[in-house]
Amino acid sequence: MFTDWLVEAYYLRLFLQLSKIPHYTTLQKFTDRINIMMLGKILSSFILFTGTRHIFTSIDSTGFKITHASEYYTIRAKLRKKYAKLSIGADVLKQIICNIKVRRAPTRHDNIDFRPMIIRISKIKPLSVVVADKGYDSEDNHVLVREKLDGYSIISPRYEQVSIWKTRGKYRTEKK
Q: Which domain holds residue 8?
């Protein structure tokens, strides 16, 4: 689908100086061969190229099925369901991906990837604001962003119905 989209993305092709659109198998081979550290450097170079001074970042994750087997076949053959979890940190204002993390353990919560991803993003450029959903609600995450990285965190509270006097943490009670 990316190569089909690339046909319509005239300015991106112009920026990348593509004389012709690559075949989709070329992109598949590239993704098989690239090192994750090299991919991180490529992504961070896009941020540096924009000339932005501070990153207004957002972080979220989603899960994917790895196999193409149907749900019926998976249940009947008693196969183990295989998933991958993708976490992405992006600059919201420039709409550029800053960092990604792919993990094969879907049962783990989103919060486990927050710290390393935000630290890697802050090494590219200083953070201004970090936005995340309920999966990342933790006082440690607020402390990391606000006190150690000098940014401002906006993370939705996980349990909104809990009264403010039962909520723990200085920054988590601010959100109520």
A: 1-33
Q: Are residues 19 and 54 in the same domain?
A: no
What letter does residue 93 receive in the DSSP assignment? T
Shared domain for 51 and 128, answered yes or no, is yes
Report how far residue 132's alpha carbon sits from residue 109's, in angstroms, rounded to the nearest whole number: 14
The reply to whether 24 and 57 lie within a common domain is no
Q: In terms of domains, do 141 and 92 share one? A: yes
| Helices within 24-145 (DSSP H only) | 24-33, 36-50, 71-76, 114-124, 139-143
143 and 119 in a single domain? The answer is: yes
Centre a 10 Å sphere on the Cβ of residue 43 and count the other Cβ atoms it contains: 19
- pTM of the predicted model, to two decimals? 0.70
What is the pLDDT tens value at each position of the chain, 176 positions in all?
Answer: 778 888 888 887 888 888 888 888 888 888 788 887 888 788 888 888 888 888 899 999 888 777 766 777 777 777 666 778 888 999 998 888 888 888 876 566 778 889 999 999 999 889 999 999 888 888 888 889 988 999 998 887 776 666 655 666 666 666 64
